[in-house]
Amino acid sequence: MQENDNLYSVKEEGELVQLTRKYHFSSAHRLHSHHLTDEENKKLFRKCNNLYGHGHNYCLEVRSLKRPALRRGFQPALSFHSIKRSNSNSLEREPSFKLAR
Asked: By the number of CB atoms within 10 A of the CB, which of 3, 11, 66, 94 ranks highest?
C-alpha cells in the first residue's frame, strides 16, 4: 500500500491494523426560516443567512480496524467507493442532511 496524507495505516494492539482514508470537500448552506422576518433571520443566523449561501470546508475520515489475513494481506471491511460526490452545491438540499443544533 502506498501511504500518503490521505491514506495511511497504524499498527494497533495485537494483530490489528487500522486503515484510514481522508476525504476533503467543501459545501455551502443557508439558514433561513420563513416564520421569521428577514431582519430576524439576519440577527439569528448572521453570516449563515447570506442569500447566496455560506460555505465550510470538511474533512471526513473513514477508518477500518481489522486483523490482516496471512495470505491475502489487509482487506478493509469498508468499501471506499461508497462515498459518492454530491451533485448539489448546498448541504440542506441533500436528502440525508439534517441540521443539528
From this structure: 66
